[in-house]
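Sequence in, structure out. Go.
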Amino acid sequence: MKKFFLVSILLLINIFFLFSVYDTEYSHVNGKSHEWQQAGLESGFPTNFVDEYFDDTDTELAIRTAILNAGDSDETHRIIFSPGVYTFTQTLVVGDYVILRGNHMFKDGGNNANRTVFQFDLANTNNCIEIKGVEENLNSSPPVQEHILVSSGIEDIVIERIDTTHSHGLSSQQGHNILIQKASNCWVVGVESRNPVKHHIDIAQSNHIEITGCFFDGAQDVGSGGFGYGVITENASQYCLIENNIFRSMRHAMLVQNEAKWNVYGYNYSTGRRHSDFNDIPDSYVADISCHGETSSQNNGPYSGPKENLFEGNQVGWMWVDSFHRANGKDNAFFRNRSSDKGLWIMGVGTWGLGP
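Output:
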């Protein structure tokens, strides 16, 4: 039954794309097409690598050491993992010019024989994988200069969170399957992500990030406070492309907030949205796509609302420009989407509750 369900979704996606995609350039809406067409990697994927190979008999320490050493090089290192199940008990920290690549195929029944599966048993609220630069801190001793991490990616790997002990109410950058922060020209391609504590992918303070061809499945927590999201762009992230992905069974599949700008969510599919807040409110009252405002405004934070983002060609149940965290910015565009349940709702600032 599960196999039939997934195959049916894929067929729907293919049919939807056949009739919806006219060209590879995103639409000219309100004069913003020039910015949206720059979303994603600036110069494509790298083509020259230094390859290093691992299989599931290698130790976690050996793999972590190889990833760490690869990030100290100016060459692009591709760390290739044979099919198998790899268990990690600490966060994998990816440096510049590092590609983690597996052998991911859609699951055939209960067979993982031809897939590279990363299972994370962290026993804490840490993130599974971090692609993360360095925040400037000139007041420290010695002062720390900002470093934007560049040109790293994750390809064709199943990422699964298997520890389930956590407390509701984590800080904003904890519990994700993948955190991309202070990064540029990085990507996640062909990944299957399962059961995060908080978000599948959190993109913060980053630009030209590309997420494509992935399947995001479920979440441990879909309660209030920012849990159970798919791919979120926030904290002034720009020119990110989230395209041709499938989202299943989460609170919000696609979300922008905190001055996210010029990002594109294109031709994605989301189904089975759910929440755990109120027993008397149906799961349908959470949106697949959300413009979530400015979460720092109530505390005099540095960010304004998300603006000039494009949502094009997505197939979802509900799109919502909400005001739960105050104002969204201008010129967020919704074009050629199919919203099968509640359409598009827009809430003005000071408008609370479930109504549009």
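Check: The two ends are 36 Å apart (CA to CA). The longest strand covers residues 338-346.
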